Amino acid sequence: MKTVLYLIRHGKTKGKDLCYKGQTDVPLSEEGIRQAESLGDHLKKEGISFSCMYTSDLSRAVQTAYIIGRFLNCNNIKKEKLLRERNFGIWEGKTLDEIKERWKEDFERWKKDPLNFYPPEGESTLELKERVEKVLKEIKEKHRGETVCIVAHGGVNRVIICSFLGLSLKNIFSIEQDYCCLNKIEIYDDGFSVIKKLNWTLRITEDAW
User: Fold this and answer.
1) Does 3.40.50.1240 match the CATH number of domain 2-17+27-88+131-208?
2) Could you count the other beta carbons within 10 Å of the beta carbon of residue 59?
3) Mind listing the pLDDT tens digit for each residue in 134-180?
4) Catalytic sites, residue numbers
5) FRET pair for 171, CA 20 to 30 Å: which of 26, 154, 163, 195?
């Protein structure tokens, strides 16, 4: 028996680009809304449907999920706090350049050891992994043999992808997750899984044409 998981990152948000928003609750920008609508329309045209959609309870993910769900006539959408983005502590709201300037030594430690280091007052990758894998296990067990969707965040998605690929979380930053990207994972009862799509976006596909 095969379970199919569609893993989606939320669309672009309001506010500064290249900014660690973390668990700060920010809505989608107009561009982010259009991205979600385009993806929802594409999935509808492909004839894809979900028995259930799970979303982080942060508004940017909730908006993305409900927009896509509207296109697919999926009203079974569940908000899950455990799917929130990593807590970046005092780095939240700061740009990459600001962090490099104000917390230079900490940022270097972050790059060298993303598994254990965490921003001041924030959350480590291991802590993120623990809560994300807890809800992922529940979703897989509850929806065995179904096609389901998770709408979450860049950090959350990377943890999930590393888990299915058996990759060390030290490689977490080697996986890109663009706004409103789509990942497709097929999960088999023997524990084997296959990544069918990775960081797929309509923009990339259109460029390829």
Assistant:
1) yes
2) 14
3) 999 999 999 999 999 999 999 999 999 999 999 998 888 889 999 99
4) 10, 85
5) 26
